[in-house]
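Sat 14:20. Reprocessing the chain from the morning session after the first attempt stalled halfway. Input below, unchanged.
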Amino acid sequence: MKRLALFICLSLKSFLLGEEHKGPVAEAYREIDLKIPEANQLLAEGKWTEAVRLLNSVHPKDQRTVDQSQALASFMFQLHPEESYELHKEVAAAHPDLEMPNYLWAVEQHRRGEWKGALASYRVASRLMKDYAPTYGLAAECALRLGKVDEALELWEKSEKAQTGTLEEFETEVCKIHGPQPKHREREALMTRAKAGDFDAAVGVIELDLEWPEDWWNSGPNKNFLQVDLATFAGLKEPGRELELALLAAKLVTEDLEPKKAKQILSDAGLLLRKPVLPANGRVLSFLITYIHDHEFLPKETLTKNWGAVMRDQAKKSKDPELHNALAWLHLDSPELESIDLQDWKQTGDARFAASYLSGQMEAEKLTLHSPQLIQALKQFPDHYVVQSLPLGLTKRESPRYRSALIETIKADYVKLPRAGVIPRPSAKPLMQAFHELAEISKE
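Finished this time. Tokens:
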């Protein structure tokens, strides 16, 4: 269960960087870390409240030192963001002259969108730290969102000239702030209802566990959690087809099945038939169709023929974005994709479909700055980098609108860094290029 523990904690570097607190904070961390295996088991069982209570019990609140609060905050950063916020606030107030407490307090405010407070704390931290690049790069977003474009450009330039800190470290910090949040609290509520006999809640638990944050930017099936789900729900009487298919998905993840065995199980479930009865849950459906395709049990053409019509009927009555996304995937190379994307966007309000539809319109040279759908999408999805970047391709560089569009693109890039490289991790290189271009335009 090491993977879970790693994601509970903020990186060691983030709270041991400050030499002033290295000893006592590290000691407090080690004491809490001893409880991680037990906390992980509680989390797997859907007992988030107990896991939080367990970690808090190591250093009880009425006896806790500031150093112990700093160590605990590192564990709570993803596990309990509200508590982490208060702990980092407390530590920063107690140590206004120390670099790491001020840096982490800035990060907490940044994550909440408290741009003014975060920028002020980054300024303090940058004066105390040894010219650390990520501090400047993160502060640049806050300045930009406050309309302080010149300061944002100055901060970004400092980040590139800084003597310590790498671009990869900056990317990791951005992902800590804007990346996925594990839904332990939601999972606990669903697990409680499921154990009381709510089959829909049981499907909801499995849905979460099929796409659980693995680290700051990746997600996928959580095998440990799904094993608990199987043990908890497999014995339920008359679960109904929806839960049966969710449990089947969990089984395919957790058991190392031979292809022949896996295909037989899917066939027995009726999923390889010409007109299968599919799950209503989009996440479960998406997992199953991907599994069947990736294991070459059915070619995509057959899946489109057998599943496509059924999924279209389901999509008409559903706002589940994962169901609509699976339907769009089936028709990626089809002329039907345009109408599917547009309908999916209207029905789910999901930015993915707007981005796909508008990108297709732009490629076909049907999109203009005055297109109603583009105007709507820019307002509806201010933080989606594909949507926000579209006006750049429709605007002349010398136009004042180009500069404002570039600023909005930079803001959206921060929220979700584009993936790049042989190992596709979030990359800040497009963000860097956009800042360079903004600096050039601002000088003209």
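DSSP finds 26 helices and four strands in the chain.
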